[in-house]
Amino acid sequence: MDLRCRDWMAALPEELWDVPLNYLAIPGSHDTMSYCLDINSPLVRSESDIFRILDGLCCCFTRPTIYKWATTQDRCIEDQLSMGIRYFDLRVARKPSEPGSHLHFTHILYTHLTVLETLASMASWLDAHPKEVVILACRHFEGMDDQIHESFISALQHLFGTKLCPRQEPELTLRALWASGRQVLLSYDADVASRHAQLLPAIPYWWANQGTARGAIRYLEWQQQLGRPEGFFVAGLNLTANRKYILTNPKQSLRTLTWAQWEHLSKWLQDQRPGSDRRSLNIIAADFVGPLPLCSLVIGLNRKLLTRYNSD
Question: pTM value?
């Protein structure tokens, strides 16, 4: 762990304190909570019936395969924070037939950890690091009706309290957020978000759905040609293997696929720029942010903004 990234926002040069957050380069983790998937949990409801039947007939084969391809991270939430991750991809669901209102995270399977106990750990970490700001993207909700959404949102408001940044905050810069004590920008990808002033709308995620670095980069460059969104957005460096590849490569995993392609991805990343230009990037998310040096590379991109600031 590169401890220099633990408080990287606080350590940014003062010239960048007034740059809008959506113009900074911010490291993120894709499928943040997949480090604690429960291999024995049910499959999420959105999986196809054929896949469910296959899993029921030969789970001794399917479960280890699902687990190693669904696991995208290997560090806990506190470690990801301390490594410099500031965008968290949180997929929230209610387990079928589970009593009570506990919610879990998902990625094909459900997690051991519940949502609120995990976010309580994050709130404690933020107390100890008052100048660090996180962006939470709650999305891919499953098994949740309006009542559960409202109960969950109420719990989030109680948990983060005055740390939550209202949707209509006039300035989303580090200097302004530090002055107001705001540390949490909460994006909520559901219709109920419009009823709550403290919830931001969904943040676009550029997902290439490609199994090679070349394919992912081609997709990201195509998106760059179309122009960046006005607000926050995520460029996903994560790779995706199709089921044919998974079945024909039984000794491989998402980890080995990611590592094999990382050099190509990282070289492309180093050539990118944050800022307001059409082709600039903002949040950059990836898998296995623990062993891969994503955070230092992304944070380092902000030096390019300094060069521009000093030349103006």
Answer: 0.95
